[in-house]
Amino acid sequence: MQTPLALTTAIAALLSATSVSADALSTCASSATDVCYAIGVPTTTASETTGNMYIQISAPTTYTWVALGMGTQEMAGANMFILYTDGTGNVTVSSRQGTGETTPKYSASTASDIQLMSGSGVTNGKMVANILCTNCKSWSGGSLSTTSTSVAMIGAWKSGASLDSTDPSASISYHDAHTAFDLDLTQATLTTDSNPFTSAATTTTTGSSGVTQAARPDPKVIYAHGLGMALVFVVLYPLGSALMPMLGKWKLHAGFQIVAWLGMWAFFGLGVYGAQVRNLLFNNSHTLFGTVVVCLLAIQPALGQLHHSHFMKTGGRGIVSYVHLWWGRILLVLGTINGGLGFQLTHTSHGWITAYSIIAVVFYLFYAVVKVFTAMRHQRRSGNMGKMMSPRTGYSVERADDEVPMNSYNSQRIVYPGK
């Protein structure tokens, strides 16, 4: 009688069994050393909505863990099987459901019904898991068709010391690398519903008929998106916002911010494309939150124009002015926070996160210092100078707004006698 994997691990029965029968479909990861996978589907399973599937995962014990998943290469909803040593010469396979670009966690409620079969274990520096899965055609996060000629599969691995755990919920580190491929399961048909991994032959190799390596998205797209959006939200927007109180040149301020705004849309487009090809669009907080922030910023140039028009007519701020200012400030902060969510999604190194944080603090402090200094200067001048006389008109003039240059007093509004 087979023992359920979620409760225990099996003792290796045929230690030399590391290969597959001719009917099972197999492949090895080209970017790893002897990390191989195989799948066999009995004819009875292929014709029914449920049934058995046979899976083999093998790898040297120089890997901490190795995984095979049924699903897309970004793991969301994937049915995953993670292999690691149990410390007693046997192996543990943990069934977990992928949740996206995060390390999958074990849950008994979503774990597939699997058993280890004969031939599983550790021998000659290699760990092998021959797995019987009784419900792999459908799971809580998705399903697959055993008659499909293109079933998405993923593999991942982590090099290092053996995990040596019998616990299916053991914590695992983030993978070193991963692969993606499509299987033609019509070529994985088994004539009998029994363990196909029992013949001691040569280890399987890459390039089996029925296996197609999936094209991996170009990482440069995501790098460009991340660096570009960081430049816009952390450097350009704060710097452009400080130009008005620093220099009092509204055309320079507007032109600078429009360039940054257009850059934001370009880098946003790269992010949308990169998320689509990775199946990450609108299924995580970064893409959802980021889309909302960018779309809300769509009206900021129009608000700026309304603010400028009001200022030219009245010489001071109105409601639209404060909407423009605080709309931009709030969305600027939210966009910067969303950059952190992007780092979390892509598992960016701590060095990049630290650099991003330091640069953000520097430019935001710079903007804050400029605004505080401007406000203090205007308050001091207002108290000491009060109203002045215009040398051209003879009418009194007063400070119109704090949106004037820090080194001049060019923006004034006429106050007619008695007004």
UniProtKB/TrEMBL annotation:
Residues 1-22 form the signal peptide. Residues 37-160 form the DOMON domain. SMART domains: DoH (SM00664). SUPFAM superfamilies: CBD9-like (SSF49344). It comes from the Eukaryota. PROSITE patterns: DOMON. Keywords: Membrane, Signal, Transmembrane, Transmembrane helix. The keyword Transmembrane applies. The chain crosses the membrane at residues 222-240, 252-275, 287-307, 319-341, 353-373. Pfam families: CDH-cyt (PF16010), DUF2427 (PF10348). Gene3D superfamilies: Cellobiose dehydrogenase, cytochrome domain. InterPro entries: Cellobiose_DH-like_cyt, DOMON_domain, DUF2427. This is DOMON domain-containing protein. The lineage of its organism: Eukaryota, Fungi, Dikarya, Ascomycota, Pezizomycotina.
